[in-house]
Amino acid sequence: MNLPAIAKQTYDQLKEQASFSKITDFVVHHLKKIASPLERARFVHHVVDDYNRSVFSHPLVKQYSPCKAGCAGCCHTQVSITEDEAHLLASLVENGLKIDHARLQKQMKAGNDSAEFYKLSYADRKCVFLGSDNLCQAYNDRPSVCRTNAVLGEASQCSTEKGLNENQQLRLIKTSEADMAIMGSFMASKSNGALALMLGKILQSSSKNKAKKKSFSNNAEL
Ligand code: SF4
Description:
By secondary structure, the protein is mainly alpha-helical. It has one domain (5-216). It contains ten helices and four strands. Helix 6 (101-109) packs across helix 10. The chain is globular and about 70 Å long. It starts with a helix and ends with a helix. It binds iron/sulfur cluster (SF4). The site of iron/sulfur cluster has 10 residues, from loops. Iron/sulfur cluster binds next to loops.
């Protein structure tokens, strides 16, 4: 399982506390009741946003956090997503959202290996959903990991332009509750992994299915 590191750290610290573990259990159990992967992803995003709302809307956070529209420091990193989130992102592409498929292929080659991912140039590490205006084109349906982990401080602290600085101390302002919910979504997911790999696999399999259907209907017309 390719788990989001920060949420997993929170989970490992708090899983023995009933008030936190019940959040993970609630998400796992509720996801079993929803059939559509798109709706499952949206349910988790709703829960994560709900837990983070009061913190992210605090006036001091608004004043001192650089996490605002146009700042995309964290959008050149490898983001872990669930299969449901991959289906949700793939649905945007299949409905006409334009992405750079050549860049997606390069990122897919790194698989789930962050060391391989950081061998790519900064430009090639740019998330395929990040627009030329540095705005997320998938903002309303962005993954859970992108919805949390905001920081206090300078935007430059998040930049990986010169490579990943594992010693960089970031002051995160997400909530533990949101992390516990995110872990529930990963535990309930059939598969998960790096955004590019998960998205690319779904887009490839859906284009193969379309090609099969086309060839079947062409043969039926003969
Ligand atoms: S999905 Fe959006 S917010 Fe998340 S990394 Fe990509 S561009 Fe950034």
